[in-house]
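Chain entry —
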Amino acid sequence: MTGPGGRVTPPVPVTPVVPAGPTPKSASAMVYYAQIQQTLLAQGMLRTDGGSEFPVSARMLTENFLRIALRDEYRRSQGGFVREETASRLRRWERPIRVGIRFGASVTPDRQATDRARIASFVARLSAITGHPMSVDDRAPNFFIHIVSEDEREALGPTIRATLPGLSPADVAGITGMSRSTYCLVYALAEGNSSAYTRAFAVIRAEHPDLMRLSCLHEEMTQGLGLPNDSPRARPSIFNDDEEFALLTDQDELLLRMLYSPELRTGMTAAEARPIVESLARRLTGGEI
């Protein structure tokens, strides 16, 4: 290489850009969740089929809907959310859902591409099931999905407060300090006394192995539509803490169809909704209560 005045300029050495490896905390989480997934698979859990061998009666569908859509898994207190099942009103989205995907710097470009494709596909599926307008829109989202490492999640406080200003400091700490036993979570919020959701915030651990990562996307995106509770009686379903099913099941699709039926009204109590839910369940299953 020749520089000004004909001098020979030695080449500038190029230092290859090597992606930083996971932090010790993140590396430990990767090992932990890989072991969890391996154990669950060995037990026959994390099934990826729809559970078609389990017939769902109109009675089962009715009771599962009332437990999952019209009861909350957590009660809100001054110290944040406390795990305690409580009665609630029917909540769902009335406005179009625009999903924004946010990745921590630890998530590699190829992993981001895979996650984006899966989220876009599932958004289209959820929209087709519910009949509710949904799209991936990073410009003006109202349903945020953050895929982050341990360290990145712990630093999410300012982002959470800016996105969900209604959350208390204890609620924010519940996200940034998420325990290992919580694989992923979603907060869906309405404004004022309304039961219509206007914003949601989901957190998915970047350390999850592939199937657990996809399972979290299915569960949190679906719960964020208005199915907030889990029930040990719901089978086949992802709304069951036993982790038998990793992905949305046939019954879960029916629950979503019921939730977004125009025959139901946002804000209904369980007593108000029951006769309509029973009628919907009979039609969807072709059976009697």
